[in-house]
Structure to design on (426 residues):
Protein backbone atom coordinates (compact mmCIF):
# COMPACT_ATOMS: atom_id res chain seq x y z
CA UNK A 1 0.00 0.00 0.00
CA UNK A 2 2.84 2.40 0.82
CA UNK A 3 4.17 1.91 -2.72
CA UNK A 4 0.80 2.74 -4.25
CA UNK A 5 -0.23 5.74 -2.14
CA UNK A 6 1.57 9.06 -2.31
CA UNK A 7 1.11 9.58 1.41
CA UNK A 8 -0.29 6.89 3.65
CA UNK A 9 -2.76 7.88 6.38
CA UNK A 10 -2.39 5.48 9.31
CA UNK A 11 -4.38 5.31 12.53
CA UNK A 12 -3.57 3.49 15.74
CA UNK A 13 -6.94 4.02 17.40
CA UNK A 14 -5.88 2.60 20.80
CA UNK A 15 -2.37 3.92 21.26
CA UNK A 16 -1.54 2.79 24.83
CA UNK A 17 2.21 3.58 24.78
CA UNK A 18 2.23 4.70 21.12
CA UNK A 19 4.90 2.19 20.12
CA UNK A 20 2.98 0.95 17.09
CA UNK A 21 2.56 4.37 15.49
CA UNK A 22 6.19 5.22 16.26
CA UNK A 23 7.34 2.06 14.45
CA UNK A 24 5.20 2.97 11.42
CA UNK A 25 6.87 6.37 11.22
CA UNK A 26 10.31 4.81 11.65
CA UNK A 27 10.09 2.03 9.06
CA UNK A 28 7.97 3.97 6.52
CA UNK A 29 10.01 7.14 6.86
CA UNK A 30 10.76 7.31 3.11
CA UNK A 31 7.02 7.28 2.35
CA UNK A 32 6.27 10.19 4.74
CA UNK A 33 3.19 8.57 6.33
CA UNK A 34 0.62 10.65 8.19
CA UNK A 35 0.52 8.72 11.46
CA UNK A 36 -2.21 9.41 13.98
CA UNK A 37 -2.21 7.86 17.46
CA UNK A 38 -5.36 8.16 19.53
CA UNK A 39 -6.52 7.23 22.98
CA UNK A 40 -9.44 8.28 25.15
CA UNK A 41 -7.49 8.73 28.42
CA UNK A 42 -5.63 12.00 28.94
CA UNK A 43 -2.86 10.43 31.04
CA UNK A 44 -2.27 7.85 28.30
CA UNK A 45 -2.10 10.59 25.66
CA UNK A 46 0.49 12.44 27.77
CA UNK A 47 2.58 9.25 27.94
CA UNK A 48 2.31 8.79 24.15
CA UNK A 49 3.52 12.36 23.56
CA UNK A 50 6.54 11.80 25.79
CA UNK A 51 7.38 8.58 23.96
CA UNK A 52 7.02 10.27 20.56
CA UNK A 53 9.47 13.04 21.54
CA UNK A 54 11.94 10.62 23.12
CA UNK A 55 12.08 8.66 19.83
CA UNK A 56 13.06 11.72 17.80
CA UNK A 57 9.65 12.70 16.41
CA UNK A 58 7.62 15.86 16.75
CA UNK A 59 4.07 15.87 18.11
CA UNK A 60 1.81 17.44 15.51
CA UNK A 61 -0.70 18.79 18.01
CA UNK A 62 2.03 21.01 19.45
CA UNK A 63 2.86 22.62 16.09
CA UNK A 64 0.50 25.60 16.41
CA UNK A 65 1.56 26.26 19.99
CA UNK A 66 5.21 26.07 18.93
CA UNK A 67 4.65 28.58 16.13
CA UNK A 68 2.85 30.95 18.48
CA UNK A 69 5.69 30.72 20.99
CA UNK A 70 8.17 31.32 18.18
CA UNK A 71 6.36 34.46 17.04
CA UNK A 72 6.18 35.72 20.61
CA UNK A 73 9.90 35.13 20.98
CA UNK A 74 10.64 37.09 17.82
CA UNK A 75 8.58 40.03 19.04
CA UNK A 76 10.37 40.02 22.39
CA UNK A 77 13.74 39.89 20.65
CA UNK A 78 12.83 42.83 18.44
CA UNK A 79 11.68 44.86 21.45
CA UNK A 80 14.77 43.99 23.45
CA UNK A 81 17.14 44.41 20.50
CA UNK A 82 18.52 40.89 20.81
CA UNK A 83 18.86 38.07 18.29
CA UNK A 84 19.44 34.61 19.71
CA UNK A 85 20.80 32.68 16.70
CA UNK A 86 21.41 29.52 18.75
CA UNK A 87 17.81 29.24 19.82
CA UNK A 88 16.65 29.87 16.27
CA UNK A 89 18.84 27.05 14.94
CA UNK A 90 17.46 24.65 17.54
CA UNK A 91 13.92 25.57 16.57
CA UNK A 92 14.70 25.02 12.88
CA UNK A 93 16.16 21.60 13.60
CA UNK A 94 13.13 20.68 15.70
CA UNK A 95 10.75 21.62 12.88
CA UNK A 96 12.61 19.31 10.48
CA UNK A 97 11.78 16.23 12.57
CA UNK A 98 9.01 13.94 11.28
CA UNK A 99 5.73 14.57 13.01
CA UNK A 100 3.18 12.24 14.56
CA UNK A 101 -0.32 13.38 15.45
CA UNK A 102 -1.48 12.44 18.94
CA UNK A 103 -5.14 13.02 19.80
CA UNK A 104 -7.26 12.45 22.88
CA UNK A 105 -10.48 11.21 21.32
CA UNK A 106 -12.86 8.27 21.30
CA UNK A 107 -12.07 5.84 18.47
CA UNK A 108 -15.61 5.90 17.07
CA UNK A 109 -15.62 9.72 16.91
CA UNK A 110 -12.19 9.87 15.28
CA UNK A 111 -13.09 7.27 12.65
CA UNK A 112 -16.27 9.17 11.76
CA UNK A 113 -14.43 12.48 11.41
CA UNK A 114 -11.97 11.61 8.63
CA UNK A 115 -10.77 8.73 6.46
CA UNK A 116 -7.63 6.63 6.98
CA UNK A 117 -5.90 4.27 4.55
CA UNK A 118 -4.79 1.92 7.32
CA UNK A 119 -6.66 1.42 10.59
CA UNK A 120 -5.65 -0.82 13.47
CA UNK A 121 -8.26 -1.54 16.13
CA UNK A 122 -6.80 -3.09 19.26
CA UNK A 123 -9.24 -2.42 22.11
CA UNK A 124 -9.41 -4.23 25.40
CA UNK A 125 -11.71 -7.21 24.76
CA UNK A 126 -14.25 -7.15 21.95
CA UNK A 127 -13.78 -4.90 18.91
CA UNK A 128 -17.14 -5.23 17.13
CA UNK A 129 -18.51 -1.96 18.55
CA UNK A 130 -15.89 -0.09 16.49
CA UNK A 131 -16.41 -1.86 13.16
CA UNK A 132 -19.23 0.36 11.85
CA UNK A 133 -17.14 3.49 12.40
CA UNK A 134 -14.05 1.84 10.90
CA UNK A 135 -15.76 1.00 7.62
CA UNK A 136 -17.70 4.26 7.42
CA UNK A 137 -14.90 6.35 5.87
CA UNK A 138 -12.22 3.84 4.87
CA UNK A 139 -11.36 4.38 1.16
CA UNK A 140 -11.12 1.81 -1.62
CA UNK A 141 -8.20 -0.57 -1.09
CA UNK A 142 -7.88 0.62 2.50
CA UNK A 143 -6.76 -1.91 5.07
CA UNK A 144 -8.39 -2.57 8.43
CA UNK A 145 -6.66 -4.71 11.06
CA UNK A 146 -8.74 -5.95 14.00
CA UNK A 147 -7.25 -7.45 17.15
CA UNK A 148 -9.60 -9.22 19.58
CA UNK A 149 -8.72 -10.45 23.05
CA UNK A 150 -12.14 -11.67 24.26
CA UNK A 151 -11.13 -15.31 23.91
CA UNK A 152 -13.70 -16.52 26.44
CA UNK A 153 -16.50 -15.51 24.07
CA UNK A 154 -14.69 -16.56 20.89
CA UNK A 155 -13.73 -20.02 22.17
CA UNK A 156 -17.21 -20.97 23.34
CA UNK A 157 -16.80 -20.52 27.10
CA UNK A 158 -19.54 -17.84 27.25
CA UNK A 159 -22.07 -18.61 24.48
CA UNK A 160 -24.48 -15.88 25.60
CA UNK A 161 -21.72 -13.25 25.24
CA UNK A 162 -20.83 -14.69 21.84
CA UNK A 163 -24.43 -14.33 20.72
CA UNK A 164 -24.64 -10.71 21.89
CA UNK A 165 -21.35 -9.55 20.42
CA UNK A 166 -20.98 -11.67 17.29
CA UNK A 167 -24.54 -12.79 16.51
CA UNK A 168 -23.41 -16.40 16.26
CA UNK A 169 -23.06 -19.65 18.17
CA UNK A 170 -19.81 -21.49 18.75
CA UNK A 171 -18.80 -24.42 20.93
CA UNK A 172 -15.49 -25.83 22.12
CA UNK A 173 -14.00 -28.15 19.51
CA UNK A 174 -10.66 -29.14 18.02
CA UNK A 175 -11.02 -26.44 15.35
CA UNK A 176 -12.39 -23.69 17.62
CA UNK A 177 -9.49 -21.31 16.91
CA UNK A 178 -10.30 -21.13 13.22
CA UNK A 179 -14.01 -20.93 14.06
CA UNK A 180 -13.23 -17.90 16.23
CA UNK A 181 -11.42 -16.22 13.34
CA UNK A 182 -14.30 -16.94 10.97
CA UNK A 183 -16.78 -15.62 13.54
CA UNK A 184 -14.89 -12.32 13.74
CA UNK A 185 -14.74 -12.13 9.95
CA UNK A 186 -18.50 -12.63 9.80
CA UNK A 187 -18.97 -9.52 11.97
CA UNK A 188 -16.48 -7.64 9.80
CA UNK A 189 -18.34 -8.59 6.62
CA UNK A 190 -21.69 -7.50 8.05
CA UNK A 191 -20.26 -4.15 9.20
CA UNK A 192 -18.69 -3.52 5.78
CA UNK A 193 -21.86 -4.54 3.95
CA UNK A 194 -23.87 -1.94 5.88
CA UNK A 195 -21.63 0.64 4.20
CA UNK A 196 -21.97 -1.02 0.76
CA UNK A 197 -18.45 -2.40 0.96
CA UNK A 198 -16.87 -5.81 0.71
CA UNK A 199 -13.62 -7.20 2.09
CA UNK A 200 -10.74 -9.37 0.92
CA UNK A 201 -9.19 -11.31 3.80
CA UNK A 202 -5.41 -10.87 3.78
CA UNK A 203 -4.30 -12.44 7.03
CA UNK A 204 -5.62 -14.30 10.07
CA UNK A 205 -3.46 -15.01 13.09
CA UNK A 206 -4.20 -16.71 16.40
CA UNK A 207 -1.68 -16.32 19.22
CA UNK A 208 -1.80 -17.17 22.91
CA UNK A 209 -4.12 -14.41 24.07
CA UNK A 210 -5.36 -12.59 20.96
CA UNK A 211 -6.72 -13.03 17.45
CA UNK A 212 -5.76 -10.76 14.54
CA UNK A 213 -7.54 -10.43 11.21
CA UNK A 214 -6.49 -8.07 8.40
CA UNK A 215 -8.84 -7.22 5.53
CA UNK A 216 -8.66 -5.03 2.44
CA UNK A 217 -11.75 -2.98 1.60
CA UNK A 218 -13.56 -3.01 -1.75
CA UNK A 219 -16.26 -0.44 -2.42
CA UNK A 220 -19.57 -1.28 -4.08
CA UNK A 221 -22.77 -3.24 -3.42
CA UNK A 222 -21.62 -6.10 -5.65
CA UNK A 223 -18.62 -6.75 -3.39
CA UNK A 224 -20.83 -6.52 -0.31
CA UNK A 225 -23.33 -9.02 -1.75
CA UNK A 226 -20.56 -11.44 -2.79
CA UNK A 227 -19.13 -11.41 0.74
CA UNK A 228 -22.54 -11.92 2.35
CA UNK A 229 -23.05 -15.00 0.19
CA UNK A 230 -20.02 -16.53 1.90
CA UNK A 231 -21.70 -16.41 5.31
CA UNK A 232 -22.66 -19.99 6.17
CA UNK A 233 -23.52 -22.16 9.11
CA UNK A 234 -21.33 -25.10 10.15
CA UNK A 235 -22.84 -28.53 10.89
CA UNK A 236 -20.63 -30.03 13.59
CA UNK A 237 -20.71 -33.60 14.87
CA UNK A 238 -19.96 -33.52 18.58
CA UNK A 239 -18.89 -37.18 18.70
CA UNK A 240 -16.22 -37.46 15.99
CA UNK A 241 -15.57 -33.72 15.43
CA UNK A 242 -16.49 -33.91 11.73
CA UNK A 243 -17.76 -30.64 10.24
CA UNK A 244 -19.18 -29.32 7.00
CA UNK A 245 -20.56 -26.00 5.80
CA UNK A 246 -24.33 -25.79 5.52
CA UNK A 247 -25.37 -24.83 1.96
CA UNK A 248 -26.92 -21.40 1.49
CA UNK A 249 -30.02 -22.81 -0.19
CA UNK A 250 -33.28 -20.95 0.17
CA UNK A 251 -35.11 -24.25 0.37
CA UNK A 252 -35.00 -26.24 3.62
CA UNK A 253 -33.04 -29.49 3.66
CA UNK A 254 -35.06 -32.50 4.72
CA UNK A 255 -32.25 -33.90 6.86
CA UNK A 256 -29.09 -31.92 7.56
CA UNK A 257 -27.43 -35.01 9.02
CA UNK A 258 -27.04 -36.39 5.51
CA UNK A 259 -24.60 -33.56 4.76
CA UNK A 260 -22.09 -34.98 7.26
CA UNK A 261 -19.74 -37.68 5.91
CA UNK A 262 -19.80 -39.52 9.26
CA UNK A 263 -22.44 -42.02 10.44
CA UNK A 264 -22.50 -41.08 14.12
CA UNK A 265 -26.15 -40.02 13.89
CA UNK A 266 -27.38 -43.49 12.94
CA UNK A 267 -27.41 -44.83 16.50
CA UNK A 268 -28.80 -41.69 18.16
CA UNK A 269 -30.54 -39.60 15.49
CA UNK A 270 -31.04 -35.95 16.28
CA UNK A 271 -28.62 -35.87 19.23
CA UNK A 272 -25.10 -35.86 17.78
CA UNK A 273 -24.70 -32.70 15.69
CA UNK A 274 -25.15 -29.00 16.30
CA UNK A 275 -25.39 -25.98 14.02
CA UNK A 276 -22.65 -23.38 14.57
CA UNK A 277 -22.27 -19.91 13.16
CA UNK A 278 -23.04 -18.25 10.87
CA UNK A 279 -19.38 -17.70 10.04
CA UNK A 280 -17.21 -16.62 7.10
CA UNK A 281 -16.70 -19.59 4.75
CA UNK A 282 -14.12 -18.03 2.40
CA UNK A 283 -10.32 -18.11 2.64
CA UNK A 284 -8.67 -16.71 5.76
CA UNK A 285 -5.29 -16.09 4.05
CA UNK A 286 -4.08 -14.33 0.92
CA UNK A 287 -1.01 -16.12 -0.39
CA UNK A 288 0.47 -13.18 -2.29
CA UNK A 289 0.08 -10.87 0.70
CA UNK A 290 1.83 -13.39 2.98
CA UNK A 291 4.70 -13.76 0.50
CA UNK A 292 5.15 -10.01 0.45
CA UNK A 293 5.23 -9.94 4.24
CA UNK A 294 7.84 -12.70 4.32
CA UNK A 295 9.96 -10.84 1.77
CA UNK A 296 9.69 -7.59 3.77
CA UNK A 297 10.92 -9.39 6.91
CA UNK A 298 14.38 -9.76 5.39
CA UNK A 299 15.11 -6.07 5.91
CA UNK A 300 13.61 -5.82 9.40
CA UNK A 301 14.59 -7.00 12.85
CA UNK A 302 12.01 -9.79 12.94
CA UNK A 303 12.27 -12.59 15.48
CA UNK A 304 12.72 -16.21 14.29
CA UNK A 305 9.35 -17.04 15.86
CA UNK A 306 7.60 -14.51 13.63
CA UNK A 307 9.39 -15.78 10.52
CA UNK A 308 8.40 -19.36 11.36
CA UNK A 309 4.79 -18.26 11.82
CA UNK A 310 4.83 -16.60 8.40
CA UNK A 311 6.40 -19.68 6.78
CA UNK A 312 3.71 -21.89 8.30
CA UNK A 313 0.93 -19.56 7.13
CA UNK A 314 2.35 -19.47 3.58
CA UNK A 315 2.41 -23.27 3.48
CA UNK A 316 -1.09 -23.26 4.96
CA UNK A 317 -2.37 -20.88 2.28
CA UNK A 318 -0.80 -23.02 -0.45
CA UNK A 319 -1.85 -26.38 1.04
CA UNK A 320 -0.08 -28.32 -1.72
CA UNK A 321 -1.19 -31.63 -3.19
CA UNK A 322 0.41 -34.45 -5.14
CA UNK A 323 4.18 -34.81 -4.84
CA UNK A 324 4.72 -31.23 -3.65
CA UNK A 325 7.27 -30.85 -0.90
CA UNK A 326 7.68 -28.11 1.66
CA UNK A 327 9.71 -25.20 0.33
CA UNK A 328 12.99 -24.47 2.03
CA UNK A 329 13.63 -20.92 3.19
CA UNK A 330 15.82 -20.02 0.19
CA UNK A 331 13.16 -21.21 -2.26
CA UNK A 332 10.54 -19.28 -0.30
CA UNK A 333 12.68 -16.13 -0.44
CA UNK A 334 13.08 -16.47 -4.21
CA UNK A 335 9.36 -17.02 -4.63
CA UNK A 336 8.61 -13.99 -2.49
CA UNK A 337 11.00 -11.83 -4.49
CA UNK A 338 9.25 -12.78 -7.73
CA UNK A 339 5.91 -11.97 -6.15
CA UNK A 340 7.17 -8.60 -4.96
CA UNK A 341 7.98 -7.35 -8.49
CA UNK A 342 4.49 -5.91 -8.97
CA UNK A 343 2.90 -6.53 -5.58
CA UNK A 344 -0.24 -4.44 -5.27
CA UNK A 345 -1.42 -5.03 -8.83
CA UNK A 346 -1.08 -8.77 -8.34
CA UNK A 347 -3.11 -8.63 -5.16
CA UNK A 348 -5.95 -6.96 -7.02
CA UNK A 349 -6.18 -9.64 -9.69
CA UNK A 350 -6.26 -12.75 -7.48
CA UNK A 351 -9.65 -14.11 -8.49
CA UNK A 352 -13.01 -12.45 -8.74
CA UNK A 353 -13.19 -11.53 -5.07
CA UNK A 354 -9.48 -10.91 -4.53
CA UNK A 355 -9.07 -14.50 -3.29
CA UNK A 356 -7.07 -17.31 -4.84
CA UNK A 357 -8.57 -19.36 -7.65
CA UNK A 358 -8.04 -22.48 -5.53
CA UNK A 359 -8.34 -21.35 -1.91
CA UNK A 360 -7.04 -23.46 0.90
CA UNK A 361 -9.41 -25.99 2.52
CA UNK A 362 -11.39 -24.88 5.53
CA UNK A 363 -10.58 -26.23 9.00
CA UNK A 364 -8.07 -28.80 10.18
CA UNK A 365 -7.88 -32.12 12.06
CA UNK A 366 -5.95 -32.87 15.24
CA UNK A 367 -3.71 -35.87 14.53
CA UNK A 368 -3.37 -36.92 18.18
CA UNK A 369 -7.13 -37.22 18.44
CA UNK A 370 -7.73 -39.23 15.28
CA UNK A 371 -4.65 -41.45 14.99
CA UNK A 372 -4.87 -45.19 15.48
CA UNK A 373 -4.49 -45.87 19.21
CA UNK A 374 -3.05 -49.37 18.85
CA UNK A 375 -0.32 -48.40 16.38
CA UNK A 376 2.58 -45.98 16.20
CA UNK A 377 1.57 -43.00 14.11
CA UNK A 378 4.00 -41.49 11.60
CA UNK A 379 5.70 -38.18 12.23
CA UNK A 380 3.87 -35.07 11.13
CA UNK A 381 6.06 -34.54 8.04
CA UNK A 382 5.50 -38.14 6.98
CA UNK A 383 1.74 -37.79 7.40
CA UNK A 384 1.78 -34.78 5.07
CA UNK A 385 3.73 -36.75 2.49
CA UNK A 386 1.35 -39.71 2.73
CA UNK A 387 -1.71 -37.46 2.36
CA UNK A 388 -0.26 -35.84 -0.76
CA UNK A 389 0.73 -39.23 -2.10
CA UNK A 390 -2.92 -40.31 -1.83
CA UNK A 391 -3.96 -37.23 -3.84
CA UNK A 392 -5.13 -34.94 -1.04
CA UNK A 393 -4.02 -31.41 -0.25
CA UNK A 394 -2.28 -31.18 3.12
CA UNK A 395 -0.19 -28.75 5.16
CA UNK A 396 0.58 -27.77 8.71
CA UNK A 397 -1.48 -25.08 10.41
CA UNK A 398 -0.45 -22.36 12.82
CA UNK A 399 -3.81 -22.74 14.60
CA UNK A 400 -2.70 -26.06 16.13
CA UNK A 401 0.86 -27.46 16.04
CA UNK A 402 -0.35 -31.08 16.09
CA UNK A 403 -3.01 -30.67 13.38
CA UNK A 404 -3.03 -30.69 9.59
CA UNK A 405 -5.16 -28.76 7.13
CA UNK A 406 -6.49 -30.98 4.35
CA UNK A 407 -9.33 -31.26 1.88
CA UNK A 408 -9.90 -34.90 2.91
CA UNK A 409 -12.78 -35.62 5.25
CA UNK A 410 -12.32 -37.39 8.56
CA UNK A 411 -13.01 -40.90 7.24
CA UNK A 412 -10.45 -40.43 4.46
CA UNK A 413 -7.87 -39.06 6.90
CA UNK A 414 -8.35 -42.01 9.25
CA UNK A 415 -7.98 -44.41 6.35
CA UNK A 416 -4.62 -42.88 5.40
CA UNK A 417 -3.42 -42.96 9.02
CA UNK A 418 -4.50 -46.58 9.37
CA UNK A 419 -2.79 -47.54 6.13
CA UNK A 420 0.60 -46.06 6.94
CA UNK A 421 0.78 -46.38 10.73
CA UNK A 422 1.90 -50.01 10.58
CA UNK A 423 4.79 -49.04 8.28
CA UNK A 424 6.35 -46.74 10.84
CA UNK A 425 9.48 -48.05 12.53
CA UNK A 426 10.44 -46.80 15.99
Amino acid sequence: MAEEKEQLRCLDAFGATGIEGILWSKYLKSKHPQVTIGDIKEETVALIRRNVRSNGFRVKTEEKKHLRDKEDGRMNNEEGGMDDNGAGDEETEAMKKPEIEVVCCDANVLLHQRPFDFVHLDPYGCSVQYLDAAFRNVPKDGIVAITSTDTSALYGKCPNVTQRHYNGYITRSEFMREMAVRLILASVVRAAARCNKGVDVLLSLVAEHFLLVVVRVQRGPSYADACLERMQGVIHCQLCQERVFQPNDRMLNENNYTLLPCTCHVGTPGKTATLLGPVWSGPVFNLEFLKRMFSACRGLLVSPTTRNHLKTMIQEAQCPAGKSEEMCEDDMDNSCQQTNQNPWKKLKTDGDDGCQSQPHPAFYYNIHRHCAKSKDSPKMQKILQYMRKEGYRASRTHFDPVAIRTDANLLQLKAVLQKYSSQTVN
Q: What stands out?
A: Residues 341-356 have pLDDT under 50 and may be disordered. The chain is about 40% helix and 20% strand. The radius of gyration is 26 Å. The CA atoms of residues 90 and 96 lie 10 Å apart.
